[in-house]
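Chapter summary example.
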Amino acid sequence: MATPTPKSTAIRPLWVIAFALVTIAVCLVALVVKKQSSQGSLAQSNSSDQAIEPALPPESATQKTSQKPRLVQTGQIAKPAPAKPNHELPPPIDIPVANEQPIPVETPTPPTPSVSGGLAPLTGRGGDQSGGTITGRVVLKGTPPPEKVIEAIAADVNCGKLYSQPVKTQFYTVSTDGGLADVFIFIRSGLEGKSFATPSTPVMIDQTGCLYQPYIVGAMVKQKINFRNSDPVLHNIHPTPASQGNREINKAQMAGGPPIGISFDTPELPVRVKCDVHPWMFVYVYVADNPFFAVTDKDGNFTIANVPPGTYTLEAIHRKAGSATRGVEVKDGTVQQEFTLEVPSN
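The structure predicted for these 346 residues follows.
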């Protein structure tokens, strides 16, 4: 008689199979859920990156097929590719200049025959280069006060080193026998109604040793006066005329710079010219309405040539000793005239 199989033993294989199927189903569900969650997270990350990344221009179909896919990592900003350097230079800018002309450079004129220390014109040298000649001498009567040392020169850091001895004023320059230098002599009257050409030779005034040389000069109306700077320092040219017809100017002149030319339109006896950089510097320009003038030399001598025949009033002017006049008749040949000026009592 066969032994019957227990009921529980027959059911066990079915339970094991059912449990295995349930386990497999649960794993599949979990795998699907995880995959969906991962895709959602990636989509959210891509949308966030697209909001930060700058927009790129649309690509052509050729570019899309030829270029590799562009990868964007989550949390990083895509940077645009650097621009290709352009080594080509822009064309030059042409700035037109209307009526551009070369700047003329003035050649200094050699000094004329000298009186009073070296650079003053001996005479106006005007007229028709014919006629008579006036010569003479100016003598100083009395004892002039002693000249004073110009302390400002020694105190100046640049000008002081140009001298080894003290520099004095030059109010009276007198020779051993009384001849007075720096006297302006000219025809005061007798030429009325006559006109004369302006001398073509400029008057030359130099700035040397922080002084104007010469100290007294003569010039005709509209005659050019050139100022030269032979010093290693800056100067300036500043005439201060009293006549309304003469213009005040103020021009700086660098060391070794080109000459500065000025002129005066109205007679004035004299026009004072100063240097504002060095307040002790002065030169006195006697502006006459005719070319017949001279400045006495270191011995008091003067010569005025080419004077038309006639009767004239001749005047001698000195800054400190005053002035004097003499009548003179000029014919062909030479006529002499002497002057005596006195030291003022005060």
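To summarize the output: Residues 132-342 form a domain with the Immunoglobulin-like fold (CATH 2.60.40.420).
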